[in-house]
Design goal:
2 strands; 13 helices; about 70% helix; globular; single chain; mainly alpha
């Protein structure tokens, strides 16, 4: 029987689980989760091997300065993003599969959609790479300078303030409305349309999440504790109807933390362990 793609109760992440059979839901959800779990395992392994390397502003002076190549860094970054972001896109994968099945399309179109999404998060890895190359060569004496804590505090303040902007709300709304997004951005179907839809959704997701991701520049790009916390925030933001309220609470906490880092520079190192 052909799947019906009209959600039972509105358009939201939970509604996507009502349009396909539980068997399909299970397979479609388990596959990204399994890939994410493998990425988490790889990330934990990388974090252990790089434990003594400075990967954030708060670790300068307390850990050795690394000299990671661009290819190694970007591989690490992509693995991190697969671990953190792929589970949050599962409702969109279900919605996309439901639409393509109704149009008699193959599952490859949904795989192309996922690829387009990951392309965005892979390309943005150039930004943290540039930042890493910039601070990887700082001397240990930089840890005692006021500008370092001021820069870290400014990043936290910016990340927190962004949670209150219209752009944050606009992008989060898009990330919480799978069917509305796909009907608007995947009209006509086909592989190229799926790739384009994946890239556009990746851009919205980036617009929603880039500020919290920037926190890694402060606490360390391989800081597993912060990774787990930020992943949990992303997941709840996108799946809970009050996700914007959570975003604002997190925004307040980040701004308070930013002020604290500027006022007490020693806090920067303690939060980056």
């Amino acid at each position: 029987m052909r799947a019906i793609v009209t959600p039972a109760k509105g358009d939201g992440p939970r509604a996507t689980f009502s349009v396909l059979s539980w068997r399909i839901n299970f397979v479609v959800v388990i596959a990204p989760l399994a890939l994410s779990a493998f990425a988490w395992y790889s990330t934990l392994d990388d974090a252990t091997s790089m434990k003594g390397m400075a990967m954030g502003l708060g670790q300068i002076g307390g850990r050795a300065q690394g000299n990671m190549s661009a290819s190694v860094f970007l591989t690490m970054w992509v693995t991190m993003m697969v671990a953190m972001m792929l589970p949050t896109v599962a409702p969109f994968v279900l919605a996309h599969l439901a639409l393509t099945r109704r149009r008699s399309g193959g599952i490859y179109q949904t795989l192309v959609f996922i690829a387009g999404y990951l392309i965005v998060w892979s390309l943005i890895g150039v930004v943290p790479l540039i930042a890493y190359k910039a601070f990887a060569h700082l001397s240990a004496d930089a840890a005692d300078s006021r500008w370092l804590s001021a820069l870290a505090g400014a990043i936290l303040l910016l990340a927190g303030a962004y949670q209150f902007t219209g752009w944050k709300q606009y992008c989060l709304d898009s990330c919480q409305s799978p069917f509305a997004f796909l009907v608007t951005h995947n009209f006509g179907g086909g592989g190229l349309a799926s790739l384009r839809a994946g890239v556009i959704h990746g851009a919205y997701c980036l617009g929603c999440c880039w500020a919290l991701t920037a926190v890694f520049l402060v606490v360390g790009l391989m800081n597993v504790v912060w990774m787990a916390g930020i992943f949990a925030i992303f997941f709840v933001e996108k799946s809970w109807r009050h996700g914007l309220m959570l975003a604002k609470v997190v925004g307040v906490l980040l701004m308070v933390l930013g002020v604290g880092v500027v006022a007490r520079p020693a806090l920067l190192a303690s939060m980056s362990l």
